[in-house]
Structure formats: C-alpha cells, structure tokens
Amino acid sequence: MMLFVSRFLLLLTGVLFLAGCMSFDYVGQSFVPLSDSVPVNIFQNREEIPADQYRIIGRGILAGPGSTDMYDRMAELRSEARKHGADAVCIVSTTGKAVGLYPASSGAFAPPLAASDNVDNLSTQNNAWEADSFGQVQTLNKKERVRYNFETKVIFLKKKADFDKEMKPRSSFL
C-alpha cells in the first residue's frame, strides 16, 4: 500500500511539473466559463474564421519551452478559452526564441530540443553549424546546444449571437 501511495505521489508531482511549464497571459473580456464538454474551435489563421459569426473578446500569449508538444499547446489554449467563455481561438503567430545554452548530451538521453546531428546541419568536417542573422555560416560548439522557448499569440472569439446576448445585460449598467 505504501509503495502504491509513493508511486502515485511521484506521478502526481511529475504531472504538476509538466503542467506548470507553460504560461498564459490574457487581456480582454471574460464571460461565463464553458464546461469541458463544450468544443472550442482552433483556427490556424484569420482566413479560416467564418465571416460575421464571431466577435473578438480578447488577446492572449501562450509561452513555454520549445519542446512542448503541439497537442499540449492546443489543450492549454482550449482550457484558457473555456475559462474566459470563448468559443474559438485563432492563432495569430508562433515564434521561437533562443533563450540559452545547455551541455550537449553524450548519453542516450538528450535534453529537450537537442540539435540533431543530421546531414542538413553538418559541415564537411562533421561539425554542427547554423547561419546567423546575416546569412554567415557559424560553426557550433558541439559541447553546447541552444534551448528555445515558443510564444504563440492568439485572439479569443465568441459566437456573435452569444456575445450579443451576454452583452445586453452589461449595457444596462452604462
């Protein structure tokens, strides 16, 4: 029994650690939160949004380690949308930013986003390389790798009919 409890606590700690890796900042209006059973659409760009069906209620930025799985990112966006009563999310942009270096792994386990030593980024001398912002090729120190974070900017959308219905009582206070 004690072994089961200790394993469960270890698993719970791991889940909480992974869940805390991303951060989300939101600016905008909040409505009645949606239940988990309500689907939240995710549009990859503004052209996918059906004309005259949604209103923009806010903007958000999701940030975290570049190694974060895309499914986890989408789940986090849906969760945040539900908290603010949004029916849909539109991704405006996603960028990656180098935030530091870490030692290259010599063993079987590689830290998140370890640069792969493949044909595309090896020189004829078998050294890893990258191009700088001026297009000049720079040889990388194989003892260090670059760690990246991502930042995804989004807009939250509410169905127009629901938006109008929920805004009507608010306008009586003005």
Question: Can you put this structure into words, describing what you see?
Answer:
The protein is of the alpha+beta class and 174 residues long. The chain has a domain at 23-106 and 138-169. The chain has helices spanning 2-19, 70-83, 160-171; strands spanning 23-28, 41-43, 54-65, 88-103, 129-131, 137-139, 144-159. The chain has a 5-stranded mixed sheet. It has a two-stranded antiparallel ribbon with strand order 5-6. A hairpin with a 5-residue loop joins strand 5 and strand 6.
Radius of gyration: 22 Å
SSE order, one letter for each helix or strand: HEEEHEEEEH
Q: Could you tell me the strand content as a percent range?
A: 25-35%
- Give the total of beta strands: 7
Mean pLDDT: 78
Instruction: Report how far the terminal alpha carbons are from each other.
Output: 60 Å
Outline = elongated
Keywords:
single chain; 174 residues; alpha+beta; five-stranded mixed beta sheet; two-stranded antiparallel sheet; elongated
Structure described in brief:
By secondary structure, this protein is an alpha+beta fold. A five-stranded mixed sheet has the order 1-3-7-4-2.
